[in-house]
TrEMBL record:
Annotated source species: Apiospora marii
Keyword terms, alphabetized: FAD, Flavoprotein, Oxidoreductase
All residue ranges annotated as the FAD dependent oxidoreductase domain in the record: 4-351
Cofactor: FAD
SUPFAM superfamilies according to UniProt: FAD-linked reductases, C-terminal domain (SSF54373), Nucleotide-binding domain (SSF51971)
Protein name, as recorded: FAD dependent oxidoreductase domain-containing protein
Length: 361
């Protein structure tokens, strides 16, 4: 029975532990500095929206394609997971078309005029001109999902614990230290595999120290107002690193108004000027959000900042030997960690299986 330690308890770590534990053939320990219920700038998952708005290009869409059916199933069949369906609209601004056509926009595939994901959603449709707001060249609508992270993360922990996964608090300075955190199973404490899901901290963890990992600062405003639909728009008039989205979390989780996409920014405190711009954009695009009362009609729960774990070159999903132990890396998801979580975790399971069949070195 392979003994596995998963380092990190964000959505990537929990989903990896969950899939690795499903058939009962592995002994699994999750060790992490931060656990669900914590709020810390190093811990991205609680701050996420989180929803499914495909961001990959067609060539790199495997992880999102594989994840969507499971998130959809959970929304339909497992209410305790804290996921619900919502209509989603994606708008392409007239002034952004040139950048979109040149592939210069930050969100890659989301705002493509002929997106690959039109075959992913059963009710995908391009919006006719009479349904488009002023200044919008084109848009699409489809039913997606939005996740209440405050419910979904503990639900994942519960699924893991039901499968025998053990959770431990710990701070690692080097990835090789994970080999000392396994718990007894199959008669041995020897750790056979370490799964590295440390997100942004992969840039600072000994034995990894990935220079391609950097934060992308996302500032949001969470309000009690209910949104009639999710919406995302290409670009804003305020700044190149400010973006627009609105989504309502399931089961009373509040409505997320966003946001920013500031690469290389570590600042953890909300900027009040950015917050005001976020709220103004939201009520202008979705006036019914505040019953036509503008910013004054918003009932603010809190302001928040999360750091997306971005990686130049894309997600790192591969295995390597570190100090004689197999390490499987699963980090660098930027802003699509939830909507790619099952696809990436399935790849982790594959990599563990591949390494298990290789001769010991």
């Amino acid at each position: 029975m392979p003994n596995i330690v998963v380092v990190g308890a964000g959505v990537s770590g929990l989903t990896s532990a969950y899939l690795l534990s499903k058939d009962g053939s592995n002994t699994i320990t999750v060790v992490a500095k931060h656990m669900p219920g914590d709020y810390d700038i190093e811990y991205a998952s609680p701050w996420a929206g989180a929803n499914v708005l495909p961001m990959a290009t067609k060539a790199s869409s495997r992880w999102e394609r594989q994840t969507w059916p499971e998130l959809k199933r959970l929304a339909e069949e497992v209410p305790e997971a804290g996921i619900h369906k919502m209509k989603s609209r994606v708008y392409r601004r007239e002034k952004d078309l040139e950048k979109l056509r040149k592939g210069e926009y930050a969100f890659d595939g989301l705002f493509q005029e002929n997106p690959w994901y039109k075959t992913l959603f059963d009710d995908f449709r391009e919006l006719p001109k009479d349904e488009l707001p002023a200044g919008i060249a084109s848009g699409a609508e489809f039913t997606s999902v939005c996740i209440n992270t405050m419910l979904y993360m503990p639900w994942l922990v519960g699924q893991c614990r039901a499968n025998g996964v053990v959770f431990k608090r710990g701070v690692l300075k080097h990835i090789s230290e994970a080999a000392a955190w396994g718990h007894a199973g199959g008669g041995s404490k020897k750790v056979d595999f370490v799964i590295n899901t440390t997100g942004l901290m992969a840039s600072r963890l000994g034995g990894v120290m990935d220079p391609d990992v950097l934060p992308v600062r996302g500032q949001v405003v969470v309000v009690r107002n209910e949104a009639p639909y999710m919406v995302s728009k290409s670009g804003t008039d305020d700044a190149d690193d400010e973006v627009f989205y609105v989504m309502m979390r399931a089961a009373g989780g509040g409505t997320i108004l966003g946001g920013t996409y500031q690469k290389g920014q570590w600042e953890s405190q909300p900027d009040p000027n950015i917050a005001l711009r976020i709220m103004k954009r939201a009520v202008e695009m979705v006036p019914e959000l505040a019953d036509g009362k503008g910013v004054q009609g918003l009932d603010v729960i809190r302001h928040g900042v999360g750091l997306r774990p971005y990686r130049n070159g894309g997600v790192r999903l591969e295995k390597e030997r570190v100090d004689g132990t197999w390490v499987v890396h699963n980090y660098g998801h930027a802003g699509w960690g939830y909507q790619g979580s099952y696809g990436c975790a399935e790849r982790v399971v594959e990599l563990v299986a591949e390494a298990s069949n290789q001769p010991k070195l």
